[in-house]
């Protein structure tokens, strides 16, 4: 599984939810649209974005993008320790950060689990 670190989370002026990554990404990321899940790669912004937000919250789009990147591209999107937030409601920030905390707790457990446990 490849990993990318998310360091920017924002709602763009176009109304799309955006997860920016630290690196430049890989050319294969452009094919995420093939999953037909409303998630796209933006090479200019170097990140993944949603279709314009209508019914879903930022938290729902965050989970969608992370899930589709993992299942469609084999890429784990991990949150950086410092994130540049823009136009994201406080309630969504808190929920996304809670998701990070629970994921980190699982990783910590998995790292110390018995050797026969699949990780």
Task: Briefly summarize what is shown.
This protein is an alpha+beta fold and 119 residues long. The protein has helices spanning 58-73, 90-112; strands at 2-11, 16-21, 39-42, 47-52, 75-86. It has two helices and five strands, in the order ββββαβα.
Notes on the structure:
The protein has two helices and five strands. With 119 residues, it is of the alpha+beta class. It has a single domain, classed as Single Sheet (Anthopleurin-A). Strands 3-4-2-1-5 form a five-stranded mixed beta sheet, with helices on one face. The C terminus is likely disordered.
State the assembly state of the protein chains: single chain
Biggest sheet features: 5 strands, mixed
* Residue share in helix: 25-40%
CATH architecture level-2 label: Single Sheet
What structural class do you assign from the helix and strand content? alpha+beta
- What overall geometry do the principal axes of the alpha carbons give? globular
What is the CATH superfamily? Integron cassette protein
In total, the number of domains comes to 1
* CATH C-level class: Mainly Beta
Rg, rounded, reads 15 Å
The CATH topology turns out to be: Anthopleurin-A
**What is the terminal separation in angstroms?**
11 Å
Task: List the uncertain runs.
Answer: 105-119
Topology:
Elements: E1 2-11, E2 16-21, E3 39-42, E4 47-52, H1 58-73, E5 75-86, H2 90-112
Parallel strand pairs: 1-5
Antiparallel strand pairs: 1-2, 2-4, 3-4
Helix pairs in contact: 1-2
Provide tags for this entry.
5 strands, 119 residues, Anthopleurin-A, globular, five-stranded mixed β-sheet, alpha+beta, 32% strand
């Amino acid at each position: 599984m490849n990993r990318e670190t998310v360091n920017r989370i924002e709602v763009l002026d176009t109304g799309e939810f955006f997860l920016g990554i630290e690196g430049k990404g890989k050319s294969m990321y452009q094919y995420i649209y093939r999953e037909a899940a409303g998630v796209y790669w933006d090479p200019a912004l170097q990140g993944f974005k949603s279709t314009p937000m209508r019914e879903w919250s930022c938290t729902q789009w965050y989970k969608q993008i992370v899930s589709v990147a993992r299942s469609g591209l084999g890429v784990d999107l991990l949150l950086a320790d410092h994130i540049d937030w823009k136009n994201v409601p406080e309630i969504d920030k808190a929920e996304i950060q809670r998701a990070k905390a629970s994921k980190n707790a699982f990783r910590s457990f998995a790292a110390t689990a018995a050797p026969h446990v699949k990780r």
